Structure prediction request, 445 residues.
Amino acid sequence: MSRRPLYEKLLSLHKQNRSSFHTPGHKYGTFFPAEMMLLDFTELPETDALFEANGVILSAEQKLSELYSTAASCISAGGCSLAIQAMLRTAKDRGGKLLCARNAHRSAVNAMALLDIQPVWLYPKGSSHYTGRIQPEDIAAAFREHPDITACYLTSPSYYGEMCDIGAIARICHNHDAILLVDNAHGSHLAFMEQNCHPIALGADMTACSLHKTMPVLTGGAVLNIRTPGLAQHAKAYMSLFASTSPSYLIMSSIDLCVDYMLYNGGKADYLRCEYTVAALKKLAADRGVPQAEGLCDPLRLTLNTAACGIAGEDKQQSFFDDFKIDCEFCDGENAVLICTPFNREKDFQRLRSAILQLQPADKPYAPFPALSAPPCVMSLREAVLSPFETVPVHQAAGRIAADTVCPCPPGVPLIMPGEKITSAAAALLSRRNITSLHVVAGHK
Ligand SMILES: Cc1ncc(COP(=O)(O)O)c(C=O)c1O
Prediction:
């Protein structure tokens, strides 16, 4: 075994010169200056402190706030997960119920378990377990059924690029004196599209944005954006509850460089150009009859249903894209998800064009994965996550209670939530998704 197994693997991947259509958004290019590696500082009198910022970090956050037109923007070096934790802590503060779309990322589910929030789940209507979006009328109906909802938590865009009608949903929430919290992990760039469709611009009260996914920021760099001034007061305290006391200055300063690029160095024009490039790729796929994510969608996300073109199953999808030296963000067996940014080279887009030109609808239809109906919930998230657990093979899981989120990652959207009873249909779906074992609550059979 190599003496530096991780480092050398990364180096060898780098040398393969493949086309990255996955995170991070900077695509390993030359966005960051070489001297940056010399700047791995820590908290010193001159370098400020993230959770008591009143110096250079505060100034960097004020620039972020200018970029996203927020009341306040708080840097996270602990990914979007940290911003999500802070949003949920804010929801906890309000009392009442939290309405939550069931396609939430597992970071949100874990935070709810730790904070002892048992949400009212709302199932997106879609073709599979992870896809689909919540409609404004679903939110309105939930308020009629649960008048004590005080906060609503949505994921938009989804991993597949599907966006909710945030403007309409925000109006419904505000009419009921509830706040709208959006996991916008995949949508930091939406403010820079021809039509600004960032959830903050559309009325969300708070958003958690994974800058590193679609912007030129080091992995782990994210922002908690706050539109409603009253919600800013405790935000830092809520973040520090979950965060490391040693946030990376490399990550934080990469955010500073990104903001400078977007505000003063042509970033907005580059993102617009990228939008047109991806629109042309989407049109090329549509002209060839390749099914894609439908409806209101992230302009920079390409989701191609290769299964409908006879390329079904993760292995087959991987090998199809391997032929073009393309790395997808995610192949789920049916859809290939590709993240495009201005940091993809012309060569990358050329490879993608060539791949799309090889796709065409198959004569034989394929059988899509079935959507799971809501499994019975027999224990709260918190009780299940904090219970003693045992690991069992999937074929012995039916009838047991999940002690953890059960999800393929990506996309990190639980098929089963902690506290839910695993049905035989759910166990069969987990096997189909290549999950072989899971944690169940010990002693409950
Ligand atoms: C929808 C969604 N939310 C939250 C996260 C967590 O983001 P981060 O990895 O930046 O903590 C992810 C990660 O993939 C995600 O897909």
